[in-house]
Amino acid sequence: MKDRSSDQTAPAKQSVLIVDDDPHILEVLEARLSSAGLRVRIAISAREALEILKAHPIDLLISDVRMPGMGGMDLFGEAHAMRPELPVIFLTAYGTIPDAVKAVKAGVVDYLTKPFEGRDLLLKVQDILRTRAPRPTQEALPPLNKVLTGGKSPAMRELYDLIERIAPSDINVLILGESGVGKERVARLIHERGPRRHHPFVVVDCGSTPTGLLESELFGHVRGAFTHAIRDKKGLIEAADRGTLFLDEIGNISAEMQMRLLRFLEDRKIRRIGDLREIPIDCRVIAATNVDLPEEVEEGNFREDLYYRLRVVTLKIPPLRERKEDIPLLAQNFVEAFCESHKLSMAKLPPETVKWLTDYPWPGNVRELKNALEGGVVLCRDGTLRPSELNLPGLPEVRSKGAAASGTEAFSLDESERNAIIRALQQAGWVQKDAAELLGISRRAIHYKIKKYGIEMAGKRSGADESHSD
User: Which of 76, 85, 126, 200 would bridge with 243, disulfide CB 3.0–4.6 Å?
Assistant: First the structure.
């Protein structure tokens, strides 16, 4: 059991405990952290570490995962019971990454894969100690079910629990879900509840940015790198330094960009276009997509190594049709918010409207529900919001007539979705880009669905934005 620091007279030193059964690793880490002005205590076993925790104030615990006798997970359990607020970083070999991911879900702040750069560990340690020192209490943060505008279904409760567990860590997260389910909102919540919340949250829309521009947007360029590069430009990755980089619609990037992103995730360094200098970047990466990435990997369209780098932890947001019990609460919350923002008297949601909302398949998910209710609030008469005022396909009387004839719902999900797309196209003058925005889905998604349902585009006006059908 040792206690060393570079300056014994320095006041209010923060204390770090390192636990590893390899004396060489202990020696190297001790020297690196002590030189940064930290008070370092070391232990060669989990049992020895617990004794130190009982006897001394510790601000951060760094532990190996696999050790003889008591391992890192058991040490974490004991330390957490003793000091619930103590942040923990795991050191893990590549083969024990699943153990580290499991630990993160249990509450560990972060992990590093061996071999690692001492500088990377020092940056993580300094960031955690800096953000944890003035850390607001959990009570200062609103409950997730309030921030996400309600949702009491089992799937959403599980999602809330995962967000709370992974947010304090620094690991990469992959968010899966259909268009309109709220992937960016979830990414923001992870950032706002994490150690980087006081630093930038930078959004990169990989789906709508042309491939030729995406490289410059992400990595930046130097003056003269190409035509019209009249000045140096900082890329979005560099702008996210110390914060969070959110890569939306990651499944749409080209093979070349996949390679460059993989290199950045491995080295945490970038090079602007036309520059020889490498710039180190410290940021958390959260990616999102509405495509089936495992299938894309299987078909050779997406790099398997990049996929595994991105999906250290995966969050799947369920579509609205799979959590219908949440719709009444979501609808009420949206109506109240829109009445307040538009300075209107509070609109009522009668039972028949709530039932119709619950029965509707919502191909555009929460975004479509939100847009429909905002329009309905403005259009409703007598302070009562009726289904006919929601500007959605499938009037209640048609649905009920079909249900009476068949004993089931009038439309299949596919038929309802097809009708919704046709109505949106008609309202948008057959401009696919505008129809996609009305539905709350991507241009790529609406183009795919038009082909899927065999929707004739004969009504499309001459010259109507064919370039947006890709």
Answer: 200
